[in-house]
Structure formats: structure tokens, C-alpha cells
Specification:
single chain; alpha/beta; TIM Barrel; 8-stranded parallel barrel; two-stranded parallel sheet; 11 strands; binds S-adenosylmethionine; binds iron/sulfur cluster
């Protein structure tokens, strides 16, 4: 199927489809990594609960609002609030309060995406009512067998629970995003083609998928010899983006940060392969080092203002334009 075609063929076709459908406009989502505290132990992730080598942090309300204000004033259409997964009543209430504050502060202008892992349908509903309208929950892989290999075997890391959470999000009315990691140990081309079919069957609104990158303080690191070399992993990730644009012409596809770890221009290449969403990191500098999901994560030292210039240049280099101040949701008539 598609992933076996040469990258240049896929990119040429995807670029034409992108221009004819979503156009050459790129939506900005300011990424706020507001806490690295997590109850889970995913085998691939640098902020997993069992990693004792990092300091744990949580932004204050003021720090979150300051970052939101930066995004709003710079006419980013939306922000993404991302964190490790926690399910306490305190955490739920805090997110609810923050959502209301953000809506008030920006006079309802800024769009809010949440990415805080698996929660009950009730919690998702409360956050939706408080102002979040998009949610990003990667399925990580659509293969239950591979999912079981990259997570501990216990009810906290259950494929069916994650899938059910995605269904809850859709039922509640969120613009629902998901995604996978590309180039995982044990992953096959068939697995990835099935991932693309999964996105289509779920009629997903947006995708954030990127290469798997090893982290030395995680259990999956011991399988690093099974990984494709960086250039081939990048090629595969770009093929996935291009193939998805061909399969789902109208959805939002992010040019993810992990691509830039494999190549300095990895995110621009993703825009050329069909992506149309860019997520500048606007987390306060002092916390960036402790949100290292994988080794050599980029943008650890770029202040948000610098990030602004860098984002504009990268998008321009890819031949696209920033759609300032727009939420950039897939229109209903295209669903
Ligand atoms: N905790 C929430 C969750 O898991 O949905 C949101 C935050 S989590 C850090 C966001 C994403 O980071 C995960 O869905 C996963 O795909 C990605 N990630 C974690 N470790 C990674 C790695 N080593 N390489 C590439 N992506 C990784
Ligand atoms: Fe926690 Fe998300 Fe990392 Fe899993 S991927 S350990 S849930 S932050």
C-alpha cells in the first residue's frame, strides 16, 4: 500500500491535495507543558513516574496565564495545555478553574486544546463545559499487541481503556485528536498502515504523530539496536504524514517537535508533506529541561519570543503562511 511508495511521490501528491483542501495556511497552537507529574509508567516516556532522574514541577496559575497571554497577544489562535496523567479530584478541579480563567482572560478568543491523558467521561464533560473544545489523546499504536509490548501489563495501561476514552471524547463533542509513534521497536509497516486506517475509521479531526525517539532512562531503551537509523525513521514519519493527507484531505495534521530531533528542518519537511499545524513551545524556560520525553528534545533553550521568529521562518521556508488568530478547526461540512 501507500507507505511502500517512494517519499518523493507521496510528498508531491500530498502537497497538491493540501493546497486544494486546507490550503497553505498553518495554524499555531502554543504548547504549555504545565506539569510533568504522571501516575503512569509508559516504557518509552522520559517523564514516566518511575524516572527518578528528573525534578517534578507544576506551573502556577500565574505562570499558565502569563504563557496564555503571550500566545493571545502574538495572535496564536489556540493553546495546548499538556501534562502527565493524573486523576485526582484536586487535579480535575484545578484544570476546570484554569480553563475558566483562560476563557475570561482572553475574552473567549483563544481556542483551548487539552492533552492530559485518560479521564472519566464525567471529567471530560466538565472540562468541555469549562471551555476546552479540543482534546489530544494519542492511541500510540492501533495494534493491541504492540501496545502491550510498550506498556506495563496492568489496568492503568490498558489499550481498550484508552480506546474507550477516545470514544468518550468524540461523544461529548470535542474536536478529537489522536496519533501514534512511528518507528517503535517491534513495529511493522503493516502496523503503521493499520494506524492510518484506524484514524480514518475513527473519523478523527486532527493528528499529532511523530517519530519514536529513545530516552536513556526508560525501559524501551534496551531495544535501541532494533531502531531504524534517524534518516530512515524521519523518512517513514514523513511518509505517514503524506499518506494521511491523501487519505484524509481535510483534517488537521501537526508538524510535531520530535521530527526536529531527527533533522533540523524536520518540521518544515512535515509541512511540505502535508501537515498544517505548528505547535511552538511557550512553556516557561526553567521547566523545559524536566519535560524531556526523549533524548535530544529540541527547543529546550529557545525563549518564547525567539520561538516566535523561528516559527515564522520555518513556516515561510516551507512555502506556507501563518493563519494568525484563527482556531483552525475542521469545518462541520467536511466531517
Ligand atoms: N500524558 C498524556 C498522554 O500520554 O496522553 C499527554 C502527555 S504525553 C508526554 C504526550 C505524548 O508524548 C504521548 O502521547 C507520546 O506519544 C509522546 N511521547 C512520549 N515519549 C516519547 C518518545 N520517547 N518518543 C516520541 N514521543 C514520545
Ligand atoms: Fe505519562 Fe503520558 Fe508519558 Fe505515559 S506518555 S508516562 S501517560 S506523560
Amino acid at each position: 500500500m501507500t507507505l511502500r511508495l517512494p517519499l518523493s511521490t507521496l510528498m508531491t501528491r500530498a502537497q497538491a491535495v493540501k493546497t486544494a483542501t486546507v490550503g497553505n495556511r498553518v495554524y499555531l497552537r502554543g504548547l504549555i507543558e504545565f506539569s510533568n507529574r504522571c501516575r503512569k509508567n509508559c516504557y518509552y516516556c522520559g517523564i514516566r513516574n518511575g524516572n527518578r532522574t528528573i525534578g517534578r514541577y507544576e506551573l502556577t496559575d500565574e505562570e499558565v496565564l502569563h504563557a496564555v497571554d503571550f500566545a493571545w497577544r502574538n495572535r496564536y489562535g489556540s493553546i495546548v495545555l499538556q501534562s502527565g496523567e493524573r486523576q485526582s479530584a484536586h487535579f480535575t478541579a484545578r484544570i476546570t478553574r484554569l480553563l475558566q480563567q483562560i476563557k475570561r482572560h482572553t475574552q473567549g478568543e483563544i481556542g483551548i486544546t487539552l492533552s492530559c491523558g485518560e479521564q472519566s467521561a464525567d471529567v471530560y464533560r466538565r472540562w468541555f463545559e469549562a471551555g476546552a473544545h479540543r482534546y489530544l489523546l494519542r492511541i500510540e499504536t492501533s495494534s493491541p499487541a504492540l501496545y502491550a509490548k510498550i506498556h506495563p501489563r496492568n489496568p492503568t495501561h490498558d489499550f481498550d481503556t484508552r480506546l474507550a476514552a477516545l470514544h468518550h471524547l468524540k461523544t461529548i463533542g470535542y474536536r478529537t485528536g489522536t496519533g501514534v509513534m512511528i518507528g517503535l521497536p517491534f513495529q511493522t509497516i503493516d502496523d503503521m498502515e493499520n494506524d492510518l486506517r484506524f484514524f480514518q475509521q475513527m473519523n478523527i479531526d486532527m493528528i499529532g504523530m511523530g517519530p519514536y525517539i529513545e530516552h536513556r532512562d526508560t525501559p524501551l531503551y534496551r531495544y535501541r539496536d532494533l531502531l531504524l537509523p534517524p534518516a530512515q525513521r524521519l523518512e517513514l514519519a514523513l511518509k505517514m504524514v503524506a499518506a494521511l493527507r491523501l487519505l484524509m484531505p481535510h483534517i488537521n495534521i501537526a508538524a510535531t517537535t520530535a521530527l526536529q530531533t531527527l533533522h533540523p528542518a524536520g518540521r518544515e519537511q512535515a509541512l511540505r508533506a502535508g501537515a498544517n499545524v505548528f505547535m511552538p513551545n511557550i512553556t516557561p524556560m526553567k521547566y523545559r529541561n524536566d519535560y524531556r520525553l526523549y533524548d535530544n528534545k529540541p527547543c529546550l533553550h529557545d525563549a518564547p519570543s525567539l520561538c516566535n521568529d523561528c516559527t515564522a521562518t520555518r513556516i515561510q521556508n516551507a512555502g506556507d503562511k501563518i493563519a494568525y488568530g484563527e482556531w483552525g478547526d475542521r469545518c462541520n461540512f467536511e466531517l
